[in-house]
Amino acid sequence: MLSIQNVTIKTRQPILANFNFEFQPHKVYGLIAPNGSGKTTFFRSVMQLIPSVYGKYQIDGLPIGKQLQKIFYFESSNWFDDNLSGLDYLLFIKQIWGSSIDIKNLIQDWQMIDYIKLPIKNYSLGMKQRLLIGLYEVSDAKYMLMDEITNGLDEGNRDKLFSKIKQLRDNDKMIVISSHYKEDLESICDYELFLENNTMVVKNA
């Protein structure tokens, strides 16, 4: 369980006030909010990349800082080093997260064979997004935070992603996926979280 207790987040402006929630395994949560309202800031705060004003984050009863191998977050393709290859990233994440996922099968599944060994500077946005999804899969983390991960995907790969997310949920993963379009997430979410005006409202999907 990912537990968030009395969390308030404020950067240049207030993002979230006194939020309490427990994210459970075997569930998909859709984080829905307009652009600029704080979705990414919320994810960064969970991952301890920025401080919250106050509050507590725990995974399975322990401080999240001691449990980071149970959670995976890769904010966007902008984080990639363009001089490295996709294979470099897949091998690195597999090692650091201690995963047993078969990289070769994953590369074939996402049709990355033709470019996975090339420097990322040669990738299109769609190629980068498929690699980004691959990092989540290869991490095999119990908890996953996906920030606007459908960006740059064509319809076929978007449908494939949603099918993968359902499979991950059925394998006892917890996934939070953000979007500014409610319609994007309705088909896969168990709960919807609406972030606006410093408040997070949770509803059954």
UniProtKB/TrEMBL annotation:
GO terms for molecular function: ATP binding; ATP hydrolysis activity. Residues 25-199 form the AAA+ ATPase domain. Gene3D superfamilies: P-loop containing nucleotide triphosphate hydrolases. The keyword Nucleotide-binding applies. The keyword Plastid does not apply. Keywords: ATP-binding, Nucleotide-binding. InterPro entries: AAA+_ATPase, ABC_transporter-like_ATP-bd, P-loop_NTPase. PANTHER family: ABC TRANSPORTER, ATP-BINDING PROTEIN, SKFA PEPTIDE EXPORT ATP-BINDING PROTEIN SKFE. This is ABC superfamily ATP binding cassette transporter, ABC protein. It comes from Pediococcus cellicola.
